[in-house]
Each structure stands twice: as C-alpha cells, then as structure tokens.
Design goal:
- This protein is α/β, with parallel strands linked by helices.
- The chain has 10 helices and 6 strands; from the N terminus they run E-H-E-H-E-H-E-H-E-H-E-H-H-H-H-H.
- It has helices spanning about 15-25, 40-50, 65-75, 90-100, 110-120, 130-150, 160-170, 175-180, 185-200, 205-215, and strands spanning about 5-10, 30-35, 55, 80-85, 105, 125-130.
- It has a 6-stranded parallel beta sheet with strand order 2-1-3-4-5-6, sandwiched between helices.
- Helix 1 links the parallel strand 1 and strand 2.
- Helix 7 packs across helix 10.
- It is elongated and about 60 Å long.
- About 30% of the residues are buried.
- Mean pLDDT is about 85; it is low at about 150.
C-alpha cells in the first residue's frame, strides 16, 4: 500500500485551519497528522509527528511562519514547507526562499492547485503559482546575483543568518527594525548579536562596525 502524505496544518485562524482540513481529509493518499496555531508549536510538532509537508501561515503571533520554517529546515531539511498567505509580498517570498521554503500559495487558490502543490513538493520539487513567479522571481534572482558579485570577507564560522544580522547591525539598524526585515523576534536578533560578538572575538557594537568596514561588509561612502 502506498504511504499517505502526512500533513501538518499551522494557522492561527481556526476557520482557515478547519477549512483546509475539510478539503484534505477525504483526499486519497493524504493524512492530516496534526494542527497548531503558532510557529513555536509547529517546530515541536515537526519533531514529534514527523510530517512530510507543513502548510504554514506566515503572519502569526510570537513567531512568524518564515522564522519557524528556518528552524524546521535546520532540524530536518527533508520536511517540506509550503507557506500560505492572504497576500503576496515580495519580501515574504524572497525571505521565505532564503529560509528554505518549498512552495508559496495565496489562500484563495483552488483545491486542485493546493493538491498539486502538496504532491509536487512531496516529490522533491518546488511549487509557486504563475502569478507569484512573474511578480517576484526575476527581481529576487537579480538581487541574489548582484549580491554574489560583491566581494565580502565574512568569517566562515558565522551562519548565513548571523551574517545578515551582522550587516544590518553594522549599518546602524536597530534590533526591532532588523527583526521586522528578517521576520524574526527581537529576542532572536539579540541572541544572534551575542553569538556574532563571541565568534568574532569582539566586545561591542562599535568594534563590530569597525570589523564590518575592514572586511568590506559595509562601505563608508
């Protein structure tokens, strides 16, 4: 017998959660293994339930779906994550891709598209609707290409997220604004800063800025 695709639903709106569940629960080959309403709970349930695909809302209290995706992917990259949002925003999609999402869907998609997305990401593909692809990917990949051309010497001990935080801190951006840009909590920003200072052997933000200028992470133009 063919294994069913195990789905974890993550949405802080019960009606949306129940609505998606009602669509999927009678579909052959799909099984809903769990539901929850926030990112932190989703991280724990992924560990205990071992779902194949997580259908994740983006804007939730405490922890966003994008931040939760990053944690989930770091723990088990085999778990597939599809972000589901009421609106399509470039920053949501680009940050989601950097976090490792496997798909992105607006909440008004048809049942057929939802099922197609689940099946394709389960098979190892990525899934984005045509509208999202046209709206976002050209700008996103151009930006990524430009970033790769820029010569920077960032300590190899830093994670990609720590490198992002380092650059923003060095630009004088505050913790709250950094959190909003990267879709992480202020507490998480502070934790990253502490790890950065420790890894680089720096004492404070002033030394961090000097480090960033010296290693061409930011310019003083």
């Amino acid at each position: 017998m063919k294994n069913k695709i195990k789905i974890l639903l993550v949405d802080d709106h019960r009606l949306v959660q129940d609505g998606i569940a009602s669509i999927l629960e009678h579909v052959d080959g799909i099984s809903i293994c769990g539901k929850c309403s926030n990112g932190e709970e989703a991280i724990g349930l992924v560990q205990s339930l071992q779902p194949d695909v997580v259908l994740m809302d983006i804007v939730m209290k405490e922890m966003t779906g994008i931040e939760a995706t990053r944690w989930i992917k770091e723990q088990n990259n085999k778990v597939k994550v599809i972000l589901i949002s009421t609106e399509v925003k470039k920053e949501f999609v680009s940050t989601g891709i950097k976090s490792g999402i496997d798909g992105y869907l607006p909440k008004d998609v048809s049942k057929e598209i939802l099922l197609e997305a689940i099946q394709k990401v389960y098979a190892g593909e990525r899934y984005f609707t045509e509208a999202i692809t046209k709206l976002i990917f050209e700008d996103f990949y151009l930006a990524e290409k430009g970033e790769k051309k820029r010569e920077r010497k960032i300590n190899q001990d830093l994670t990609n997220r720590e490198s992002e935080v380092l650059e923003l801190v060095a630009q004088g951006i505050g913790n709250k604004d950094i959190g909003e840009r990267l879709f992480i909590s202020v507490k998480t920003v502070e934790t990253h800063k502490m790890h950065i200072l420790d890894k680089l052997g720096l004492k404070n933000t002033a030394e961090l800025i000097k480090y960033a200028i010296k290693h061409n992470i930011i310019s003083i133009d």
